[in-house]
Every structure is written in C-alpha cells, then in structure tokens.
Write a structure and sequence with these properties.
The complex is a heterodimer of chains A (about 500) and B (about 180). Chain A is of the alpha+beta class. Helices cover about 35% and strands about 25% of the residues of chain A. Chain A folds into 4 domains: about 100 residues, Rossmann fold (3-Layer(aba) Sandwich), CATH 3.40.50; about 70 residues, ATP-grasp fold, A domain (Dna Ligase, domain 1); about 240 residues, D-amino Acid Aminotransferase, Chain A, domain 1 (2-Layer Sandwich), CATH 3.30.470; about 45 residues. Chain B folds into 2 domains: about 100 residues, Glycoprotein, Type 4 Pilin (2-Layer Sandwich); about 70 residues, OB fold (Dihydrolipoamide Acetyltransferase, E2P) (Beta Barrel). The chains are: A alpha+beta (about 500), B mainly beta (about 180). At the A-B interface, helix 8, strand 16, strand 22 and helix 16 of A face strand 2, strand 7, strand 8, strand 9 and strand 10 of B.
C-alpha cells in the first residue's frame, strides 16, 4: 500500500522532523492544533491543520486515542506517525489503528506490548541468550519482598516502573534503610505516569555507559542494525548529549552487541524502526536494558553517520517495501554529536525555564543540522517537556566534531529564556569527555561546574549592567529635546522605550 | 549591524557593580568612548544584530547579552546564556550599603522556597516538627518528574504555607524553619 496522507500524532521538533521527510516523499501531512500551543511551528509546515484548539477535552489531545482515530477516519488519512512520547509506545493505540484500517508507522501492537512490559522483555532476552542484570523475576508486590530481593542481589539496586521509560518511576537505592521511601516514591510516580504502579528491581551497575543500537526490520523478515549511539551524558536518567558511533566499541563488540540487538528484535517479530538499549561496563560486558519500540529523540546522529533517513525507512517499511540495504552495506562514516537544547535553567538545578522565545538564531554550516520545534515568539509552556530544539554536528573525527560543536553552540543565540547551551559547552570542554572516558555518572562525578563561563564573562556582564544604569541616568538628566538622540541611544534604553508605547 | 556610539557628558562617573558574593567591579565612564573597568581600559563595544540581538565585542569575540531583570539598581544580566546578578552602586551608596550590612542582625528564620514551578504531591512534615539538614520536606511534581525538596538547615518547622495539590510558582515560599 502506498501511503498518500499522514496524521502526525505529535508536536514540537519531531512533528517538524516527520513533515520534512513526508514532504520529500510527496505525502500530505495533517497536524493537530491544540489550545495549549495554537501558534506552534509544526502547524505552519503541515499540509492540513486539524483545529482542536476550541475543544478542551478531559484527555490531552495527543493522548486521546479515539479522537485521533476519528480525525484520521473523517479526513480519510492513510497512516498515523506517533513520533516519540505520548502514544508512541501504546499497544492499544497500535491495535486500534489496525482495527480501523489505518497504517500505524511503527511495530505491531504485540511487539510494543511485549517490549513495553519489562518482565516479558527480560524473559525473552534470557531465552535468546542476551546478557541481563540480576534482578527480580517479575514484579515486586511489597516493600517486604523488595527488601528480600535487594538483600539477595546486593545493594545498590535500582527500582524501575514495569511500564516505564524516560526516567520516570526510577530510583536508585544505596542501602536498605532507604528502600521503603524510594519504593513509595517510585511506585506513585509510576502510577501517575503510566497508570501502572508495578515495579521491578535490578542490580545497579555503577558508572556504566549507555549504549543503544538502532534496528530496522521490514515485513519480509530482514533485520539490520545501523550501529550504536552512546547516550551516557544523562541527568536523572534524561539524556542530554548523544553521539554516534561510541568511542567505547571496537568492531568485534559492535558486531556482538548488534547481533544481540537483532536477536531481541526477532524474538517479537519486530517490524519497523526500534532501539535496543544496553548498559556497558568498563570491562566490555554488556547487559540488555530495554527496547524502545519507536523513533527516538537521538535518531539524527545515526542518520548523520549512515546517511539513512530513518523516518523515510519507517514509512517505506509500513508500505511493505523491502529494506534497500543489507548489513554489510551499512558503514559508519565520521562522527556526529547531538545536543538537546532544553528550556532549562542550569544554574537553578535544570529547573524548567518557561517563557517566550523572543528571538532564536541558529548556527549555519554544511555539517550542522538543526531539528527545531520553535521559532521567534514561540512560547515554552508547562504542558510539554522542555526540549525546544536539537543541534546535531558532524565531522570526520570525534575531535573535529567536538571543536565544531563548541563553535556552533556559541553561535546558537536565543533571547527570552535560558537553555542548556552553557551546559553543553562545559561538557565539551571537559578533558575526560574529550578522551571518551565518561559514563552515566559523568555529570555528578566529573563536572566541577555545570555551565561554561569564559574568563571575562562576569566582568562583561557587570559592564552591561553599569552601562544600562548610566544610560538611564543620562536619559533622566536630559531636559532638552535632542532630535538626534535616537541615534545614540543604548539598545536597552531603546527597547524599554519601544515597549512603553 | 549598527554600532551604538557612546557619547556622554557624564565623564568622570564611577559605578561599582557588586555581585551576590560581594565581588566588586569598578566601572568608570561606562557610557563614554573610553570606559575603564577596575582601572584598566576596557574597549568593549555594543552592537545590535540584524536579527535583533544585542551583543558585545571584546578582544575580537562576540558575547550575547540580555538584561533579564532590572529593579532600580538591581540587575540580572544574561551573558552567553549564563545569568549574573549585580547591584550597581555609586561610591557613596556603596559605603552606605557596607555600613548597613555590618549592622544588620542575623535572622533566625530560614525559608524553604520552590526551586521550580510545579505541584505539591506530598507534604512529608508537619508544623512544629523538628527537622535535620538534608531531610526531605516536600515532593514536588514538575514536568512529570517527582522531585524531593530537602531542608538546607536543621531546626523546627514554624509555618507551612502550602498544602497538598497546591500549584506553586518558582521561588514561592513553601515553609519557614526556625534554626
């Protein structure tokens, strides 16, 4: 079946990203306008806007399965792309699409269900000889049981939501005295986030690297992987910087882990794009963590080093096309790093920095890719996550990519909100990061400061404040009319006057 | 791109930018052709880009600048994405400020503020309870994450200003603790 129209059940940069490929393929796109973000960038790019800004439902728009099905049916839309987050890993949504004859751009409902349930996923991994961490068999029902299991496998342990992902419902427990409190927090968080409070326990490997493999599988039984991504720069289990390939892997380990990832995918007859996540310890041992049955935020770094448009492959796979390449055709060229530009105040513990993006200016260059969900005057609302854009930088070697990235980040200008840019620059300046000697504890263990400051920055800021203060005094003192004043006025005084009209 | 020339009659003026950690920058004639910072010539130029950004040029490098908060002589400036707070004093007002600080009596009451906007999921303490430094007080949900707010002091809780399910703004006072 040829897909001619596509409903994007998502927002932000991923909606923009999907439109980009759909346009290239000549597919009509439908976007959903919500009351929370009626002027969002993606709405300007889609072919058709479905306006739901007047209707305020009980369930948020991107989580309302029946409403989405309805939009697709009433507009005779061929396919739905869920993006990431929201309904991207809901087996029920995939099933409802199938029932209604709408092509779901993603794996089958049963594959989503099996991989989404961490207990089943772990059983499958064991059956297919993929290494796992010691942990609870099945869900843990009570604090008492949690204590027994943790004692057996030894502290530190990690509590995880059985239905979880994205760091929610996840807590590390260092010692027995803390387990009761952490169990309560994790299960209530899981209940809120996923409507399922069940938890499981795993041995916690301290200081591992987070390595994941991108999988593509078609409807004809062909499975390939597009190499790894390293996503070890994380804060509270939220990824902040990702790269491909990883400096920790050699060809042998890449082949081993890639094969293991494919075994996981095959165990659920996986079809479409997916990601298998592993922990890698300092001795080259790897452990299966989970499979994400959707496109991921960090997919662009893989696209940069393989030259493959993963969204395009997702759509073609759904159309029933065979993968146009074999494993031996996949070569990883050069090095790509992605930076998540989040509306967060790094100086205030990464707290959300809501507000209006007055102006945004992107660095330019042929090896610079910007996946952005915002534009001038976009509003950062509390309703959605804080990521506003991604900067992806590519070059021949890791070292060159790091140098190019620092320069690109310094040219990425935003006015109106604070972002994670100063954090990203500080990471790139860190010696251990540059040597590739880092793991998931990097932020807590290896960063003395969380944001970059140049040697003269504070002095320059002091000058700006004194300049403005003096300029204001100057304005107050002038009693005569000076017709040329506009020429000499400070930009801050000018801005202030313009606003006062 | 347009350079805003800085001509002023107020030559000879001195301002002191004081940081929160009491670091001082003495700035002479900021609104002139030849400003000085800490008695050294500082050839800083201010530009406005075509896109409407204000930036400084200093030693051939560009610095993005924005005043994000301003209240009389209190400033917060964002420079290359990092914020800096100052109070701008004249030599006279600086002397007065120092005098006042010296004679200020230290308050015994500490406040706990919300580090980010969010919703109070759970209150873990009650009024009049004794609390130790580092102990959790409140679970605050922000951007779908649960955050534990811990006390930075030991003492007795004298007042709780929020209740469960309240939505709070950033920097809102949550409770008071007597040391």
């Amino acid at each position: 079946m040829k897909i001619k129209s596509l409903l994007i059940a998502n927002r932000g940069e991923i909606a923009v990203r999907i439109v980009h490929t759909a346009k290239k393929m000549g597919i009509k796109t439908y976007g959903i306008k919500t009351a929370k973000e009626p002027n969002a960038l993606y709405l300007q790019l889609v072919t058709n806007v479905c306006d739901y800004s007047e209707i305020v439902g009980e369930i948020p728009e991107f989580l309302d399965i029946e409403k989405l099905i309805n939009i697709a049916k009433s507009n005779k839309i061929d396919a739905i792309h869920p993006g990431y987050g929201f309904l991207a890993e809901s087996p029920y949504f995939a099933k409802r699409c199938e029932e209604e004859g709408i092509a779901y751009i993603g794996p089958s409902a049963s594959a989503i269900y099996k991989m989404g349930n961490k207990t089943i996923a772990k059983q499958l991994a064991t059956q297919h000889k993929v290494p796992l961490l010691k942990g609870s068999i099945g869900n843990v029902r009570s604090i008492k049981q949690a204590k027994e299991i943790s004692k057996k496998i030894g502290y530190p342990v990690i509590l995880k939501a059985a239905a979880g992902g994205g760091g929610r419902g996840m807590r590390i427990v260092e010692k027995e005295s803390k387990i009761e409190k952490m169990f309560k927090i994790a299960s209530s968080e899981a209940e809120k986030a996923f409507n399922d409070s069940s938890l499981f326990i795993e041995k916690y490997v301290s200081n591992p690297k987070h390595i994941e493999f991108q999988i593509l599988a078609d409807k004809h039984g062909n499975y390939i992987h597009l190499g790894e991504r390293e996503c070890s720069i994380q804060r509270k289990h939220q990824k902040l910087i990702e790269e491909a390939p990883s400096s920790a892997l050699d060809e042998k380990l890449r082949k081993d882990m890639g094969d293991a990832a494919i075994r996981i995918a095959k165990s659920v007859d996986y079809c479409n794009a997916g990601t298998v996540e592993f922990l890698l310890d300092g001795r080259g041992n790897y452990y299966f963590m989970e499979m994400n049955t959707r496109i991921q935020v960090e997919h662009p770094v893989t696209e940069m080093v393989t030259g493959i448009d993963i969204i395009e492959q997702q759509i073609k796979i759904e159309q029933g096309e065979k993968l146009p390449f074999k494993q031996k055709d996949i070569k990883l060229n050069g090095w790509a790093i992605e930076f998540r530009i989040n509306a967060e105040d790094v100086q205030a513990g990464f707290s959300p920095n809501l507000g209006t993006i007055e102006k945004i200016y992107y660095p330019k260059g042929k090896n610079i890719r910007i996946d952005s969900g915002v534009m001038d005057s976009s509003v950062v609302t509390p309703y959605y996550d804080s990521m506003i854009a991604k900067l992806i930088v590519y070059s021949e070697t890791r070292e060159k990519t790091i140098t190019a990235s620092i320069s690109a980040l310094k040219k990425f200008w935003i006015r109106g909100i604070k972002t994670t840019i100063p954090f990203c620059i500080e990471v790139l300046c860190n010696k251990k990061f540059r040597k590739g000697e880092f793991n998931t504890s990097f932020i807590e263990q290896d960063m003395k400061k969380l944001y970059y400051q140049g040697p003269d920055d504070e002095m320059l800021a002091a000058y700006v404040a004194a300049f403005d203060f003096a300029a204001e005094l100057e304005t107050d003192r002038s009693t005569y009319v000076n017709f040329e004043q506009g020429k000499n006025i400070s930009p801050w005084v000018l801005n202030k006057r313009l606003r006062s009209f | 791109m347009k350079l805003y020339s800085k001509k002023s009659k107020n030559i000879g003026e001195e301002y002191i930018a004081v940081t929160q950690k009491n670091k001082r920058f003495i700035i002479n004639n900021p609104f002139s052709e030849e400003p000085k910072i800490n008695n050294k010539k500082a050839d800083i130029k201010i530009f406005e880009s075509e896109e409407g950004f204000t930036y400084l040029v200093w030693k051939n490098k560009k610095y993005l600048a924005e005043i994000i908060e301003k209240n009389q002589n209190k400033y917060t400036v964002l420079l290359n994405g990092v914020s800096y707070s100052f109070s701008i004093e004249s030599p006279i007002s600086y002397k007065r400020k120092k005098y006042l600080e010296k004679h200020k009596t230290k308050s015994k009451t500490e406040i706990i503020i919300a580090p980010m906007p969010g919703k109070i999921l759970e209150l873990l303490v009650e009024e009049n309870a004794e609390i130790k430094e580092g102990e959790p007080i409140i679970i605050l949900e922000a951007m779908k994450m649960q955050n534990e707010i811990n006390s930075h002091v030991s003492g007795r809780i004298t007042k709780i200003l929020v209740k469960q399910n309240d939505s709070v703004a950033k920097n809102e006072v949550l409770l008071e603790i007597e040391k």
